[in-house]
Amino acid sequence: MHSRPEEELEPLLAVDIGSSKIRLIAGTVEDNSGEVHVLYFQECPSSGVTNGAVSDIDKLSNCLSKMIQDYKDTMDLPFEHCVINIAGSQIASANNDGTSPISTRKVTEVDRINALSVASSYQFAKEHHIIHAIPQYYETDGSREVSNPLGMSSLSLTAHVHLVACNESQENNLRTAFERVSPSIKIDEVLYSGIAAADAVLSQEDKDIGVCLVDLGGGSIDVALYNRGKLIYSFGREDCGVRITRDISTNCGLHMRPAEFIKITRGVAHPDLLENPETVFAIKARSDSDEKLYIKGEDLARNICSSLWDIFGIFNNQVDNFIKQESIDLSLGGGVVFTGGVANTIGIEPLGRSFFENVGKRHVKVRVGVPRGFDVAENVTTDLKSPEYATAIGMLRLAAEIEQNRARARKAMADFKSSNRSITKVLAWIKDWLNREFF
Question: Which of 45, 138, 209, 254 could serve as a FRET partner for 332 with CA atoms 20 to 30 Å apart?
Answer without folding.
Answer: 138
